[in-house]
Design brief:
The structure is a single chain. By secondary structure, the protein is α/β, with parallel strands linked by helices. About 30% of the residues lie in helices and about 25% in strands.
Length: about 375
């Protein structure tokens, strides 16, 4: 600790107020925000986190958490939850799938939320003659209940780690704790993508078979890509288990370089992906792959952002830290995701009726 710098610190007396303001923003019943200490000092004073810590006389490369605990200036103890929180939050974002797949994040104010859904039952265009009234179509509106949950985990830190390991090194291990917390959110997301969030599978993804069960081909992917593109979706993301991902990557169309040029050039204007992102996760059942449009499949609902709480357990000389957040996922458009199952036959497990765009494409412009 730099005692001279601590004595001259500009921001030391602000630490309690900063802590209270951050906690107030994070615990709001409505509109709670996941704001970090780094974001706060940047917005308020234009400082980087490193400059802020230097002003306080703290060197994260050499100082330990205990160095802060034993300081006579009690204001410094308000830093400890932030020092623990930031690497967990970083790991939560770094090692997870969900930030790359969700369409948006929405703050909510309860554990049960009503989400809208719209069914365009009769909205096909009609021919309108001169001076005629434009006919009305029907769009039915409804709502669905979505339940979100608290997820969390605790980690025990021995006095030895607290007393002798520098803040920077402890942060590396706390990041891994955050990664594991994020993996739980990924598992929850994949369950929602496959089964939906409604009882009885009312919002589940359609399960589509392949031409020859047990033999995956590039054509099986093309059938889904083309159909989804006709529905206005952009299926650029896939999630599969290890075996299914390897089978996909082993297809000639994905692994072999193409030499020469075709006799005629065909420019496909429907948004069939020329490349796709593949994520590997064990929560996806074997022989299945989820194909989705990340811009319209799911939305993340946040009731409470990352909450860090600590307690000292004297009996075994440990510092227990608990991380929790209240969140969940809700589906948006049912035709924005498809589960392809290589054990199913496309002849009997084809596209559902609501994924048939021909009903709109072949409607004549008649009165």
């Amino acid at each position: 600790m730099n005692e001279a710098q601590m004595a001259a610190s500009t921001y030391k007396k602000e630490l309690e107020q900063i802590h209270n303001q951050l906690e107030s923003v994070r615990r709001k019943e409505k509109g709670a925000l996941d704001i970090t200490l780094a974001q706060y000092v940047k917005q308020r004073w234009g400082l980087s986190m490193q400059s802020f810590m230097e002003d306080l006389g703290i060197d994260t490369c050499t100082d330990t958490i205990n160095n802060i605990f034993v300081l006579p200036d009690k204001e410094y103890r308000y830093l400890i939850p932030e020092i623990i929180r930031e690497p967990i939050r970083l790991g939560l974002r770094r090692g997870t799938i969900y930030p790359n797949i969700i369409a948006a994040e929405q703050s909510v104010s309860g554990l049960s939320i009503k989400m809208p859904h719209i069914n365009m039952s009769d909205a096909a265009p009609k021919k309108v003659n001169e001076a005629e009234t434009i006919p009305l179509g029907d769009i039915s509106y409804g709502s669905k209940d979505v339940t979100i949950y608290k997820v969390g985990r605790g980690i025990s830190m021995s006095y030895e780690v607290r007393d002798y390991v520098s803040i920077n090194v402890v942060s590396i291990f706390l990041q891994d704790f955050g990664v594991k917390l994020g993996q739980q959110l990924d598992t929850q997301l994949i369950d929602i993508l496959i089964n939906g969030e409604q009882a009885g599978g009312a919002a589940s993804a359609p399960v589509i078979g392949i031409t020859t069960p047990g033999t995956l081909t590039y054509r099986d992917y093309l059938k889904i890509w083309v159909r989804m593109s006709r529905l206005g979706k952009n299926p650029t993301t896939m999630i599969a288990g290890e075996a299914m991902a390897i089978d996909t990557l082993d297809l000639p169309e994905f692994k072999e370089r193409q030499a020469g040029t075709p006799l005629a050039k065909l420019n496909v204007k429907s948004p069939i992906p020329s490349s796709a992102d593949m994520y590997v996760h064990s929560a996806v059942p074997a022989n299945q792959v989820i194909i989705l449009d990340p811009d319209s499949s799911v939305i993340k609902l946040n009731a409470k952002p990352l909450l860090i709480e600590s307690e000292k357990i004297i009996s075994n000389q440990t510092l227990a830290t608990y991380a929790s957040l209240t969140t969940g996922f809700a589906t948006m458009y049912r035709d924005s995701r498809v589960v392809m199952d290589t054990t199913e036959d496309f002849a009997t497990a084809g596209f559902p009726d609501y994924m048939d765009p021909s009903k709109q494409e072949v409607v004549p412009l008649t009165n």
